[in-house]
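Lecture 7 notes: from sequence to structure.
We start with the chain below.
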Amino acid sequence: MNLSLSKISPNLWFEDQAEQAAQFYVSTFSNSRILNVAYYGDAGPGPAGSVMTVSFEIEGTSFIALNGGAHFSFTPAISFLVDCDTQEEIDELWEKLSKDGEEVECGWLTDQFGVSWQIVPKLLRERLNDPDPIKAHQVMNAMLQMKKLEIKELEKAYHQ
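Predicted structure tokens for the same chain:
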């Protein structure tokens, strides 16, 4: 069986929501798919026949979701950054991923499963690295005032 996994794949540890999470992520991003679902056998440690892992792909990156029990939880120290081309893409992903989750700040959110995401416009990195430190500072200050990032407001700050 060829799972088409990347050489390095994030492994997301869920208590018992791996399949639900994988289906949610695949439905959120257009270029995504479930690759494989594996089940626990009689040896456990999960109940025989229950989902052990779900391998899936989002925008060319492979992930594995594991039902490993309540031993660990997610932290914002690890997040997934999504570079967006348009405000429409930011708005759509923000709405889907933050539903039943938490809007944080500066383009960060935590989804309903506790996974942290950064939904940012591609131009942000360019603006923050501008050789003119005043322009970069203005964009940084604008970003620090936002939860969901607004391209129009970032550009307004850049061109002040």
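Points to note: The CA atoms of residues 80 and 117 lie 5 Å apart. The chain has a mean pLDDT of 95.
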